[in-house]
């Protein structure tokens, strides 16, 4: 998994709202698990994809002392 820390007055909610808003308007399904301090968002192709099969990516966001830690990696749909 790739990890980055974004410093500043940011919250997990800021990131999760932006990510969900971006991907829910396309041909993807999005689900969120967790709370305001640690959240997992999964983005996957829809079950009815015509090519390539179903794929998913997970984004793990956690509130840290001076910002938000974000990890991105491939994972099966939970």
Tag the structure with descriptive keywords.
five-stranded antiparallel β-sheet; 5 strands; 78 residues; alpha+beta; 15% helix; elongated
Q: Please report which band the strand proportion falls in: under 5%, 5-15%, 15-25%, 25-35%, 35-45% or over 45%.
A: over 45%
Query: Rounded to an integer, what's the Rg over CA atoms?
Result: 13 Å
**How are the strands ordered across the major sheet?**
1-5-4-3-2
**How does the overall form come out from the CA principal axes?**
elongated
Distance between the termini: 17 Å
* Share of helical residues: 10-25%
Structural class: alpha+beta
Instruction: State the low-pLDDT regions, or none.
Output: none
Biggest β-sheet: count, sense, barrel?
Answer: 5 strands, antiparallel
Mean pLDDT comes to 87
Instruction: Spell out the helices and strands N to C.
Output: EHEEEE
Describe the protein.
This protein is an alpha+beta fold and 78 residues long. Helix content is 15%, strand content 49%. It contains 1 helix and 5 strands, in the order βαββββ. The mean pLDDT is 87.
Summarize the SSE layout with pairings:
Layout: E1 2-7, H1 12-23, E2 28-34, E3 38-45, E4 56-64, E5 67-74
Antiparallel strand pairs: 1-5, 2-3, 3-4, 4-5
Question: In summary, what is this structure?
Answer:
The chain is an alpha+beta fold. The protein has one helix spanning 12-23; strands at 2-7, 28-34, 38-45, 56-64, 67-74.
